[in-house]
Amino acid sequence: MNALRLRFPNRQQPDLILGSGVHAIGRDVADRPVILDDPAQAIAQFCVDRRGVWLQLREGTRGLHVNGRPVRRMALLRAGDAVFVDGNEWLLLGDTPPSAPAEATPVPGESADPRMVLRGVGGAHHGRSITLDQPRLVGRLPECDIRIDDAAFADRHARLEPHAEGVVLRDLGSHEGSLVNGWPVRSALLRPGDQLVFDTQRFIVEAPNRDPPAEARKLPTSAPPEEALAPAVDANRSSSVRRVPWLLLAALFLAAALSLLLLYGAR
Description:
It is a single chain. 22% of the residues are buried. The chain has helices at residues 214-218, 226-266, and strands at 5-7, 16-17, 21-27, 33-36, 44-49, 52-57, 64-66, 69-70, 74-77, 82-85, 88-93, 117-122, 129-131, 136-139, 146-147, 158-163, 166-171, 178-180, 183-185, 188-190, 195-198, 201-206. The chain is α+β, with helices and mostly antiparallel strands.
């Protein structure tokens, strides 16, 4: 993810590029969303750090939803999320998805990851995980792998195909197309972390953990890794083990002394 931007309703304001830091959003005299210099006057603020984008609300703010779900204090956002404030939609856009590669015969030595899945995060498929180890059909027909039961949805909307670089989305002639990270597309190459929206159904492409890039491994962390903590823990454990016999001997000595005192004191 190289860039995130916040798009305001009806393009009332230019897209806000969300770099690292805090971005305060409020209203002008016409009750339109504007970018503020003073966070104290904001109705919400977007905080960008290494973990992602956090939406924070000013105390007392009501009527704010993310993807149709109410937010009380804070929410972690991802590219493609829709933030609704008093009926106005603020859309969080990610990178423009790359075009789908042309259909071609598989290259020897290259294969798709069979463990890649599409996880439902909104709508009727919320909580469901669909494996992407084989092509999946999206549409309204009962035989579709991902069925969107809406009279306005296409019988065969799109097809998802496993690919060595991710997952390929191919439109099958639908009227409305799909959304990837907030961008309307017909076909695209999807990668882990991308958000895919069909109508009101939201999904995230997920894959098993992979080794982070070299740049990520160089980033400082707020806490030492578990490997660094392990030697100290082992050393403390060894020290504790060495102290146990001495404590045991002292307890035995005290018990013997008390026994003698009781025995001879009774006489």
